[in-house]
């Protein structure tokens, strides 16, 4: 008799018959189990049958995934994947339009299952679908289901994208370029183009020749947010894959076509709320746009380049226009002295040759570009700042040149200029879509803020770094509210004066105050275990509530979800696929799969996860790598996760470690421990306010000479 762990009790359905309750021996070959089931219902040719999950997925049971069968599962005896693939392969070639449409509907649905997909692809099914598209005879629902089946089959990563002909690419591109096209066909066509561009450099070049930005723009002016999302995704893919030397050219085309203002009016300011996928695509576009600044950010100034030095002369001319007129006469030494004096007033570190200041990278020439933009487009503010500081005492002047260079470097760090977009981030800022030169305008607002903060702090040159820290805090705090416009951002900064920052810091410091005396440290150590137990309970409660995880592959947007939650008795993990993102908790009984906590052997994270070792785009993405974790159970089987964000990642890894009796080591645990511990300490020490706690306990007094003062109760 095999051990009970190898036996699972299931119900098996067959149309027209009563369900059969069976015990399946997991050590027995699947073909033998299917044969036994067929014999029970007197069905011939068991090799033409297969078992399938009787749920919304209808996925086939194979030797690879059979360990996912749990006690109480409902299975269905059905035609094998090879047989169904063969039948559909023939049916989609039917001369009857109705039969063909039904077959394509079934194909689009079945193609989600990798077992079926493999069988259909083995019959050269992908080539058949591409030929049907290239022929151009199908349209409407026929074409829509053909493209849907194609997308589902390609999502499994079995077939390389490099295998497709130019005729197929031209046909897909033509559906995108047509002004009046079926919504479903347009959506699938955009998804195919995005995948082609992202997965093949050769296809990128072919797609880029077939579609123009001008042909994509009209799709953004409609009201269908899914179409808008797919359109921006294609633009992002073209942007991301274009050679570096062509990106500035593409950015110029996007500006000419007024992409920014179209997105602002039709997407960001539309009546519909922005969903997560659209937010992600807008974030990617924002990052790619700011990354165009990287070249200037990493370019040193050549002190011998006259064209570059002329920019510095222009800054001097705008600031000291009247004084420059008198520079046409006089000796070289006198003129040199005047230049040095003016460069000192402009706040450069090197007064003799300010070009040297721009040899530091980052920010390189980008800082000089920002200064010139400010001087030309906000001339009054520029002149006021320069003259205001040049008339102050030496020790209190705010050096405009040095400040601009450091501020530009800081803004590049805040906006992560030069970094690739994150896979799961939705952090776009609407205000950056309100102006064609948003980074330069952002700088102009912040340099005026820096000057204002310098005055409020009564700073001297020794306080330069301290002022920069305060300004960085003001900017990051203002950005957290996601202002809708640059004016809103400016208004928010007005309210974040230096005095306000000090108040906020003091308030936060009071909430995070560290107590360092020995008695306090001993008390902290004593109450730490009960705080840790509280955190553990919170993590387990969160696991009981559950989390929705997104399924991600090389083509990011699939909108496929699965849900996982811990049972209230902390003994079983319930999980299962979902059709769409849930609005609240998903009940246990709707999650088909179960994993007993007792079967969990280990929890692995990051690059140790099996799904991070597979070839593909995910492996290369640092952000996804930091959110990945896997649960190892039974005979080297894994349940793979990619958390939606860092918080959920910490909650789940902490909770799973707690279930296994291991230490919770995440940064959120440390943060929660500090917060709760400090709060508990303050509550316990309320009665000791304004009382000095000694570093060492007071000495124990000597014993008295007699105990006559003791009262005898008897």
TrEMBL record:
An individual GO BP term: phagocytosis
Primary location class: cytoplasm
Alphabetized CDD domains for the sequence: PH_ELMO1_CED-12
Organism per entry: Cyprinus carpio carpio
Name listed for the protein in its UniProt record: Engulfment and cell motility 1 (ced-12 homolog, C. elegans)
Residue ranges of every copy of the ELMO domain listed in the record: 307-479
Domain of life: Eukaryota
Keyword Phosphoprotein: yes
Compartments it resides in: Cytoplasm; Membrane
GO molecular function: SH3 domain binding
GO CC terms: cytoplasm; guanyl-nucleotide exchange factor complex; plasma membrane
Keyword set, alphabetical order: Apoptosis, Cytoplasm, Membrane, Phagocytosis, Phosphoprotein, SH3-binding
Keyword Heme: no
Its job: Involved in cytoskeletal rearrangements required for phagocytosis of apoptotic cells and cell motility. Acts in association with DOCK1 and CRK. Was initially proposed to be required in complex with DOCK1 to activate Rac Rho small GTPases. May enhance the guanine nucleotide exchange factor (GEF) activity of DOCK1.
One Pfam family matching this protein: ELMO_CED12
């Amino acid at each position: 008799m095999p051990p009970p762990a190898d036996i699972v009790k299931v119900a098996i359905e067959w149309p027209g018959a009563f369900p059969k309750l069976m015990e399946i021996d997991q050590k027995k070959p699947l073909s033998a189990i299917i044969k036994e089931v067929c014999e029970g219902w007197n069905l011939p040719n068991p090799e033409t049958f297969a078992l399938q999950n009787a749920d919304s997925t209808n996925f086939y049971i194979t030797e690879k995934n059979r360990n996912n069968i749990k006690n109480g599962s409902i299975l269905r005896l059905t035609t094998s994947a090879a047989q169904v693939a063969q039948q559909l392969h023939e049916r989609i070639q039917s001369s009857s339009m109705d039969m063909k449409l039904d077959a394509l509907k079934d194909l689009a649905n079945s193609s989600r299952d990798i077992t079926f997909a493999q069988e259909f692809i083995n019959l050269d099914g992908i080539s058949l679908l591409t030929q049907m598209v290239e022929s151009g005879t199908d349209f409407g629902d026929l074409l829509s289901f053909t493209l849907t089946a194609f997308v589902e089959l390609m999502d499994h990563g079995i077939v390389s994208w490099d295998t497709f002909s130019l005729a197929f690419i031209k046909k897909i591109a033509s559906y995108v370029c047509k002004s009046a096209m079926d919504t479903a066909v347009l959506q699938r066509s955009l998804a195919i183009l995005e995948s082609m561009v992202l997965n093949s450099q050769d296809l990128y070049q072919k797609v880029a020749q077939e579609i123009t930005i001008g042909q994509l723009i009209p799709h953004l002016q409609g009201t269908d947010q899914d179409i808008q999302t797919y359109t921006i995704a294609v633009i992002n893919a073209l942007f991301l894959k274009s050679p570096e030397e062509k990106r500035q050219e593409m950015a110029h085309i996007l500006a000419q076509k007024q992409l920014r203002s179209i997105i602002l009016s039709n997407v960001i300011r539309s009546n519909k709320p922005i969903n997560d996928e659209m937010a992600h695509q807008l974030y990617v576009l924002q990052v790619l746009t700011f990354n165009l600044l990287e070249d200037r950010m990493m370019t040193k100034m050549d002190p011998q380049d006259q064209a570059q030095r002329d920019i510095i002369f222009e800054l001097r001319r705008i600031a000291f226009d009247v004084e420059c007129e008198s520079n046409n006469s006089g000796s070289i030494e006198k003129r040199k002295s005047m230049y040095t004096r003016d460069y000192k007033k402009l706040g450069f570190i090197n007064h003799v040759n300010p070009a040297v200041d721009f040899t530091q990278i980052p920010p390189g020439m980008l800082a000089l570009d920002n200064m010139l933009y400010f001087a030309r487009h906000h001339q009054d503010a520029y002149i006021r700042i320069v003259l205001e500081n040049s008339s102050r005492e030496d020790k209190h002047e705010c050096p405009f040149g040095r400040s601009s260079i450091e501020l530009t470097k800081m803004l590049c760090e805040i906006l992560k200029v030069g970094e690739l977009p994150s896979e799961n981030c939705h952090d776009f800022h609407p205000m950056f879509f309100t102006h064609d030169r948003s980074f330069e305008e952002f700088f102009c607002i912040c340099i005026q803020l820096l000057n204002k903060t310098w005055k409020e702090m009564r700073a001297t040159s020794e306080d330069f770094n301290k002022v920069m820290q305060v300004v960085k805090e003001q900017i990051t705090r203002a950005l957290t509210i996601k202002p809708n416009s640059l004016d809103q951002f400016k208004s928010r900064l007005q309210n974040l004066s230096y005095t306000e920052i000090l108040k906020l810091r003091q308030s936060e410091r009071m909430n995070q105050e560290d107590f360092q005396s020995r008695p306090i440290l001993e008390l902290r150590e004593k109450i730490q275990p009960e705080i840790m137990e509280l955190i553990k309970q919170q993590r387990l409660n969160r696991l009981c509530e559950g989390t929705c995880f997104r399924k991600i592959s090389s083509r990011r947007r699939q909108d496929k979800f699965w849900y996982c939650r811990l049972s209230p008795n902390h003994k079983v993990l319930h999980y299962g696929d979902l059709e769409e993102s849930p609005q609240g908790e998903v009940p246990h009984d709707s999650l088909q799969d179960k994993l007993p906590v007792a079967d969990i052997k280990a929890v692995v994270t990051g690059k140790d996860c099996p799904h991070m070792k597979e070839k593909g785009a995910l492996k290369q993405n640092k952000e996804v790598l930091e959110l990945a974790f896997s649960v190892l159970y039974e005979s080297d089987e894994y349940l793979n996760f990619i958390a939606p964000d860092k918080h959920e990642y910490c909650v789940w890894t902490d909770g799973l470690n707690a279930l296994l009796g291991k230490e919770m080591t995440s940064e959120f645990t440390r943060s929660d421990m500090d917060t709760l511990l400090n709060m508990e300490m303050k509550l316990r020490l309320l009665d000791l306010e304004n009382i000095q706690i000694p570093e060492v306990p007071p000495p124990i007094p000597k014993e008295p000479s007699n105990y006559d003062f003791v009262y005898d109760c008897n």
